[in-house]
Amino acid sequence: MRVIRASEPGYARSVTPEHTFPEPTNTEAIRVIGRFEAGRGIPDAMRNDVRMLGVLLGQVLREAGGDALFEDVERLRLATIQAYDEETPDAFDRAAAIAESFTVARADEVARAFTCYFHLVNLAEEHQRVRVLRERAGQPGREDAADTVATAYARLKDEVGEDEARRRLEGLRFHPVFTAHPTEARRRAVSSSIRRLSELLTQHDAASAGGAEAHRAQRRMLEEIDTLWRTAPLRSQKPSPTDEVRTVMGVFDETLFTTVPHVYRRIDDALRGEDSGSSAPIVPAFVRVGSWVGGDRDGNPFVTASVTREASNIAADHVLRGLERALERIGRTLTLDAEGTPPSAEVIALWERFAAAEPGLAAELATRSPDEPHRRVLLVLARRVAATRHGEGQLRYSRPEELLTDLRSVQSSLAAAGAKRHAFGGVQHLIWQVETYGFHLTELEVRQHSQVHAKALAELDAGEAISAQTEEVLEVFRVIADIQRERGLRAAGRYVVSFTQAASDLANVHRLAKHALGDDAPVLDVVPLFETFADLQAAPEILAEAVTFPEFRARMAETGNKLEVMLGYSDSSKDVGPVAANLALYEAQEKIALWAQESDIELTLFHGRGGALGRGGGPANSAILAQPPHSVDGRFKLTEQGEVIFARYGEPAIAMRHIDQVAAATLLASSPTVEQRTSGAAARYADVAATMDTASRERFFSLVKAEGFAPWFATVTPLEEIGLLALGSRPARRGLSVESLEDLRAIPWVFAWTQARINLAGWFGLGTALQAVGDEELLVEAYREWPLLRTMIDNVAMSLAKTDERIARQYLALGDRDDLATLVLDELALTREWVIRLTGGEGLLEGKPVLQRAVQLRSPYVDALSLLQLRALRALRSAGDTEATGSGADAEQQRLLLLSVSGVAAGLQNTG
User: Fold this and answer.
1) Beta strands of 231-294 (E only): which ranges?
2) Which DSSP letter does residue 252 get?
3) Is 410:261 a contact under the CB 8 Å cutoff?
4) I need a labelling partner for 251 at 20 to 30 A (CA). Which of 293, 316, 646, 901 fits?
């Protein structure tokens, strides 16, 4: 009997279990898998971790589902691996047939098994990254000059002199803003289980091979993997905005609160050597962390004024608890007696004021710390922070600056008494934490759509009864004012206006604040968000008008002529395609930066970069170094979301490395050589940019503006089903259905293409753009010398590496539109060809072996989940034309599809 290939019409209805291929022997399986792993260049330590975790997962599968489940998983795994082996050209068809042969219940179990495997591989890879970072930490000179603040500072000093380099270091600012956009497909329970596994893997590394501790760690890992297997991978209901706040707080509790001061210390160590820790540091507290979680109400009706208030309260509680514990911990170790380390008059006064106010507590602390004045005072400060958290009477601090004053008094006292290591060691860490986080932890930002403001003002100007929505808009300003009174201006003061299309959109915010509170309106830094192609082009004119408004002039006068402007990456990419959007964003930054420089304005550009490449994602440090002159100037602010938050900040060593890298690029971006290189290349290749812009936009529009594109897109990807996933509190689309691209938010636009293994949002139009230029020698030169093009090409290479044409063809075949499918596949082939020609070698990512290994290692396993997703998608699409829709069988297929979506997201590691 002829086997029907997966790409042939009618495949979904024709494949039956008897169409499977002969299975290889166990010996052959070991040989094939071993050859595949060896070809990926996996380091021995990581290979051992992957194998150990894989064996433990296999044991769990056998115990939970019997040998039959294990064997089914292995059959599909082997077939998808063999599909990458030229010796077995029919393996892909065999893998597809195996996926079709399972019952829905078995397919469900197999999908869960592969998803668990991805979580374990991701864990092993992260563990290997930490190993490498720890090995490098003791070997100076192994990292590139642009990779650390210390080496970037040395390079800057050579170019501009020590005084100017020092001034720029003092003004350095890195400002990540965490958002609740729903791109993290894992449940919080799954993330917690993985975190526990990570700790056990570290314990296993430290134990003697074959010893009792290693055995104990393996036994506990087996238990944890069993927990991972038995934990439902899908959320039963969408998280509330408050749930999202608490999830993000986990990153602070477990990583960022303690890690950021260590970043400062490591940089100071590198810059000052032995002097670090014994005198005042030269490294400022340059990190500020923002949050939209609980503040971003654009398109999310569940984020209300009360949610914003609660988000601020939760964050404040976390940071105050952290400061209290840190003060107590360092205070307990400061057992320096008064005779050898006499306190200053300021420290004595601090103690006496406390003793007069709280004689009972003072007596208790004096008994615990006799003749240890510095210890007593730090424990007093811990009590005062606790009182602040509880809102208790006269002990509480009214603002963080008061705590900083007290800490600096202790620091000065210790330094004057000769205890400099203590003054500029543990106490300095406390100062850095307060400077970074204040009493608010995250600088909470509010975002709302300009049309909501316009509608509210129209009601208020009419003088009639206002709607519930308008009352809610006004209540937000009252909450912001309350937060500022309780925690200071940094706690909540930025107000981002989505879809800013005119200067009046910004003035409307101040008008609404006055409607809410009159002269008691909160202090606001109104931030325009330019998102569409047209808005980016109009940005300089809009800003020039906005800064003439009295409210803007007054606020800028208070801040030293500072202004913040946000640029939206995802909507501009969805608007004109990724190539034209990147070029438009560069041009907009260039023009805004030039206007700001001529107007003597200190500009901060806020980059709305999503986690995925189709939303402006990719390595931040290389993107920073490709920005126009004066668009960075030592300040970099960007959104961080979903899985990116946990990937970059969830593990201390990786978080330290990431912050150091981004801060280094931020410092180096304004060096004369980098600015000259960037501006010079942009001028030399302006004609290339113009050709690419026109050609890419025309190609993009030929697809997205084709008649029937939106419903076709919803058919060939799991777009509608993604909306059923309980990923986040925010709705996935603006309307009830997707009739046009405008109805769709950028996140599901990217997420759906990623799930279909096409990744179209990250690359479509680039091949045509490069083909339009045509001169390969010129383009290779431009790739080498033009940072913007290099960053674009490298990001596209990564996006293309995660595509799979065999899988993509099957998704595209669901739409019964050969013209659109051919357009996509032709552009894919053309883009891949040009990217390889420009980057060199015979394949993608050949110059980035670690990234290439990560992609190649996962690809066969992602294929397995994609094949399971396809069978479910075909069944659901077929059921949509019958009376079976909504039946029990339909619900089973839907669950299988959603399980596979979660698994593919884990495997590809970027979603929306």
Assistant:
1) 290-291
2) I
3) no
4) 901
126, 651 contact by CB (below 8 A):
yes
The amino acid that residue 462 corresponds to is A
Cα–Cα distance between 752 and 895 in angstroms, integer? 17
Catalytic (active site) residue 449: no
Q: CB neighbours of 57 closer than 8 A, spacing ≥ 6?
A: 113, 116, 117, 120, 225, 229
Give, as one character, the DSSP assignment of residue 237: S
Question: Distance (Å, rounded) from C-alpha 441 to C-alpha 526?
Answer: 21
What is the secondary structure of 517-537 as a DSSP string? HGGGPPP-EEEEEE-SHHHHH
Partners of residue 670 on adjacent β-strands: none
DSSP string, 9-64: TTHHHH--GGGPPPPPPHHHHHHHHHHHHHTTT--HHHHHHHHHHHHHHHHHHHHH
User: Which structure tokens are listed for 222?
Assistant: 């087996």
- Dihedrals φ, ψ of 419, to 5°? -90, 60
CB neighbour list of residue 912: distance below 8 Å, 6 or more residues apart:
181, 182, 183, 610, 611, 612, 615, 642, 746, 747, 748, 749, 750, 751, 754
Write out the CATH class of domain 443-611. alpha beta
3-state DSSP assignment of residue 222: helix
pLDDT along the chain (912 residues), means of 10: 34 33 48 56 86 94 95 94 82 94 95 91 90 73 64 94 96 94 63 89 88 92 94 79 88 91 95 93 96 92 95 97 96 94 96 92 90 95 95 88 97 97 96 97 97 96 93 98 94 96 97 97 97 91 96 96 92 86 94 96 90 57 90 94 83 93 94 95 97 97 95 92 67 52 71 92 96 97 96 92 94 95 98 96 84 84 94 87 53 89 80 48
Q: Which of 157, 422, 574, 607 is catalytic?
A: 574
Q: State the Cα torsion 11-12-17-20 to the nearest 10°.
A: 40
Crossing angle of the two packed helices 503-517 and 533-546, in degrees rounded to 10? 60
CA 306 – CA 304 distance, rounded (Å):
5
Which contiguous run of DSSP H or E holds residue 496?
A: strand 492-498
Spatial distance between the Cα atoms of 622 and 304, rounded to a whole number of angstroms: 37
Domain ranges, ordered by start, for the chain: 251-280+316-441, 443-611, 679-847
CATH fold, domain 251-280+316-441, is: de novo design (two linked rop proteins) (1.20.1440)
Contact call for residues 242 and 314 (beta carbons, < 8 A): yes
Among 157, 181, 515, 637, which one carries the catalytic annotation? 181
pLDDT at 495: 98
Pairing verdict, β 525-530 and 562-568 = parallel
Distance CA 597, CA 617 (A): 27
CA 840 – CA 847 distance, rounded (Å): 8
Give the N- to C-terminal CA distance of the chain in Å, as an integer. Answer: 43
> Is residue 615 a contact partner of residue 753, using CB atoms and an 8 Å limit?
no
